[in-house]
# Entry
Amino acid sequence: MNKLNVKIGNIELKNPLICGSGEQFIELIGIEKALKHGAGAVVIKSTNESTAAKVQLHKTDYTVIDSNFKQLPWDQTPPRDASLFNRSGLHPKPFNEWLELAIRADLMAKKYNSYAIASLIPADLDKLIEHAKIIEASGIRVLEVNVGAPHGDEAVKGAIMLEREASHIKEITQKIRDAVNVPLWIKLTGQSSEIPAMVKAAKDAGADAVTLMGRFMGFIPDIETGEPILGTHAAYGGPWALPLTAHQLVKSRKLIGSDFQMIATNGARDGYDMIRFMMAGASAVQMTSAIFTDGYAVIDKTLRQLEKYLEQKNMNTTDLIGLAADRVKTYAEQDSKVDHWRKFTPE
Ligand SMILES: Cc1cc2nc3c(=O)[nH]c(=O)nc-3n(C[C@H](O)[C@H](O)[C@H](O)COP(=O)(O)O)c2cc1C
# Structure
């Protein structure tokens, strides 16, 4: 086995860097670029049957924000601590055209020893099942279903489903699993108080893996104009989200054990972040914003950083999975540092 290989269910990826679904993967050319740069897999821009979800793509807007909540110009590589604030919609093409693209993309990915993954964001559940069956019949090798897109509450009613309850995750996953055998990844929201329970629900209902966790919704006033930046609530993500996602990975691993694969999303910007996510229990890591703002060279850079780290430490990627998660202690298990708090008391 190659040093970088990882397994997600029965699928073997040549490396754990997955390009997460986003605007770069609306067209074949963007997917091809990611494959050429060495991505272990690419998730195609999501689709569903809703016209409103497609129309929403024409109302998207994107801005990069620094730590003073100042908007940064698009034509410059943002600093590492910048956040992305944006609205998004779904793939603009009708399902049949999206499917054609997805088939071509996965055939192309095969040549790169990689995967182009179909992605559905449900609107209506019966329609989702119908689409999942068509995707399976088409020969596409992996399906990700995102039941936690952050825009769900702000989008036109019925355009995008956003599920926050473990019982719903179980029901939806079970319905898909009963209908298709294709490797199934369930992508979960970060906007729920029961994320580990949702992971367990997806596992129990037969998912091959979960992807967690979706970004949060934010609101940023511009203090010069008094206007909301971008005019609306919007999804907000940055490297600050990494510890929040990692926390849920660790809690989920504790609940479900190490024999079920989790894919991290939300917060990775480079190879060291990938290592952090894997040490928290992820078997692979999706990167979206970093490629969106910094370009495809991020893929090469990230893989080089990961490879160099593994070489220096004489490790394989699989050695990283859960390394830190399995060493976590409770507050009660910590050594006592009597009077440690006094260092905050003024003289
Ligand atoms: C512009 C943009 C569009 C996105 N579109 C989708 C999408 O269509 N389907 C999906 O499942 N996730 C979508 N996402 C979410 C990303 O795949 C990813 O989960 C999220 O951005 C957090 O990861 P990151 O910190 O690497 O960006 C989108 C994200 C961005 C920034």
User: Anything to note?
Assistant: The first strand starts at residue 6 and ends at 8. The domain at 6-328 is CATH 3.20.20.70 (TIM Barrel). Residues 20-23, 45-46, 84, 86, 88, 90, 119, 121, 146, 149, 187, 214-215, 237, 265-268, 286-290, 292 surround flavin mononucleotide (CB under 6 Å).
